[in-house]
Amino acid sequence: MAAAAAISAPPRPHRPALSLHPSPSSCSPAASASPLPMRALPILRRRLRRPLTTAVHAVKQDAAVWTPAPVSAVGAATVDGSIFHVAVDLSDAAGLADSYTSPGQYLQIRVPSAGEELKPAFMAVASPPGAGARFEFLVKSVPGTTAERLCGLRDGDVVELGAVMGKGFPLERITPADAAQTVLIFAAGTGISTIRSLVEFGFGANERSDVRLYYGARSLETMAYQDRFENWVSAGLKIIPVLSQPDDSWKGERGYAQHAFLRAKNIVNPSSTGAVLCGQRQMQEEVTSALVADGVSQAKILTNF
C-alpha cells in the first residue's frame, strides 16, 4: 500500500520512513518526540497492542490448565526410601479424573511455594484409569527439583496438576488376545509406574499364553511395588526381576532388563508377539531392534509416547 500511495499522490517533501524494526536509538526520548506520518499510526497501534494481547492470553491459558488438589498420601515406595508413592485427591476435580482414559498417560505437576520457583515435573499416572477420584504417582526424589518437593509433602498439602496428556499405550494393536499370545513387558526404575497402570487396568493377560515382565532395578531395596507382585502373578504375569547391583545372596537375573531377555528370548511365534516398553531409551532401542530382527511387527511394540 505504501508503494501505491507514492505513485498516485503528488510529490511531497522528503520525510524519513518509519522503521517497523526500530534501532535502539529510535526508542530514545528525543526520537519518540518526532512527529510520525498519520498513515503510520494504525501500524504502530497494532504493534503496541500485540504484546499485551499475547500476555493476557498466556495468563488466561495458564490459569485454565492448572487444577489444585490436595495430597492424600505420601510414603516410601522402596526399602531404601529413594522412591516415593504420592496420591492426590481428585474429589473436587472429577473432570480431570475422567480425562484419564488410557494406561501410559501423563501430566505435569507443580508444588505452589513461596520459595524458589521450580519447573513442573512430568509424571506418569501410576493408578489405572477408572480407579476412582485420585491419581497416584511413583516419584524418585532428585535434589533441587519438583520431584524432591513432592516427596516431602504431607497429607493435605496442595499441588497443582496440568491436563492429562498423551494417548497412552495403543493397546488396540495387541487386542484381542489372539493378536498377541505372547506379550513381553519391559520396565526400569520408575518406569514401572505405567506398567502398574497397564496391569491393573487389564489387557487380558490371563487370556494369553505367555506374558513376561522384565523389571530392572539396582537392587531389591530400590525396586517398587514388590507388595503387588502376587496380585500381578495371579492376573497372568510372569515377573522376572533383573538387578544391576545385587548383593551376593541374589540368585536371579543380573544386569539390565533387556540383557536378561536377550539371553532367554524364547519367542515361539513372532507374528503373535507384542511388547510394551517403558524405561531408558537405550533399553527400548535394544529391545526393539532384537524383536524386529526376530520377525515381531514394529506396530505391536508399544510405547506410551
Automatic annotation (TrEMBL):
SUPFAM superfamilies: Ferredoxin reductase-like, C-terminal NADP-linked domain (SSF52343), Riboflavin synthase domain-like (SSF63380)
Disordered: annotated segments: 1-33
Cited CDD domains: FNR_like (cd00322)
Residue spans of biased composition, Low complexity class: 16-33
PROSITE patterns the UniProt entry points to: FAD_FR
InterPro entries: FAD-bd_FR_type, FNR_nucleotide-bd, OxRdtase_FAD/NAD-bd, Riboflavin_synthase-like_b-brl
Domain of life: Eukaryota
Native species: Urochloa decumbens
Annotated protein name in UniProt: FAD-binding FR-type domain-containing protein
Residues of the FAD-binding FR-type domain: 64-171
One Pfam family cited in the UniProt record for this chain: NAD_binding_1
